[in-house]
Amino acid sequence: MLKIPLFPLFVYFLPMIGLAQQKQLNDTIEKIASQAKGAVGVAVVDLDTKERFLFKADQQYPMQSVYKFPLALAILHQVDEGKLDLDQMVHLTKEDLQIPYASPLREKYPEGNVDVSLADILRYTVSQSDNNGCDVLFRLAGGTNAVHRYIRSLGVRDINIAATEREMGKSWDVQYTNWCTPSAMADLLEAFYTKKFLSNSSTTFLWKIMTETVSAPGRIKGQLPSNAIVAHKPGTSSTNAAGVTAATNDVGIVELNNGRRFIIAVFIKNSTAEMEAREKAIAQIAKLVSTYHVHDK
After folding, report:
1. Could you say which of 28, 125, 165, 287 would form a disulfide bridge with 223 (CB–CB 3.0 to 4.6 Å)?
2. pTM for this predicted structure
């Protein structure tokens, strides 16, 4: 399998779209972003032309559950190395299922004391954004530092993985330690899609469970054609007493029925808008990108 050299890759050598198109997209997204009442960052990569559009994409945004995508990459890397196996059974205790946030695993096994396959834990964590499953995967991966080092080893620098779901739940500020830039997340998605570091079987498995994501259907997928294939990972924070929502995100890979393929990463930070407005902004940006042709096919 291809080895990734230890220096920043991917976006830095790819062409930007023309200045006129860049300004037109920028102005339109600026208007859409204003409804989110927060900081909005967008990174887009056309997977055929390699042209890209960046909107405030070099700023740091808290990932929330978006970080379950790089976590899954790290786990599947260990599967490829033979250190883990998708068929291996993982014993879950009741304590493993005590994070008081969304957890279909806990709903199914409220008393714990059950063996669940690694493949199923990945499905719960990625497709259903299970927070207890997430922390079990961090434990299997060797901790947040191990996952962080693995992602950095791929040449992606502007991603920081520092805290588990349990740790984020203890303090509002901790979530900001798990951050990335939209540009870096687009890099990571592109490298995954083009099979830069995982085996074919691991890539296929992760692609499948990302296309089966059930959360946040009103974001990237919200205004796209119903036959679009979208492999994505959303992330959402709670809203504090001041009415601020730290993170409303969605990142993914889109394949349209007309053959168009693109990566899109949209992050909304510290928003005071209602959920409907935040999700609508992401959906409108994705729709705009899907219909914006730099070159006719």
Report:
1. 287
2. 0.91
Residue 140 is which amino acid?
L
Closest CA to 220 of 198, 197, 189, 192: 189
Domain membership flag for residue 4: no
Give the Cα separation of 294 and 291 in Å (integer). 10
- β-pair type (245-255, 261-271): antiparallel
User: Is 165 known to be catalytic?
Assistant: yes
Which residue in the list 51, 165, 190, 279 is annotated as catalytic?
A: 165
Instruction: Give the residue among 173, 187, 177, 171 at the shortest CA–CA distance from 70.
Output: 187
Q: What is the C-alpha separation between 185 and 177, in angstroms, rounded?
A: 16
1 domain-assigned: no
The residue-averaged pLDDT of 195-207 equals: 97
Whether 51 is catalytic is no
Average pLDDT over residues 249-264: 96
Which residue is associated with the tokens 């294939």? 229
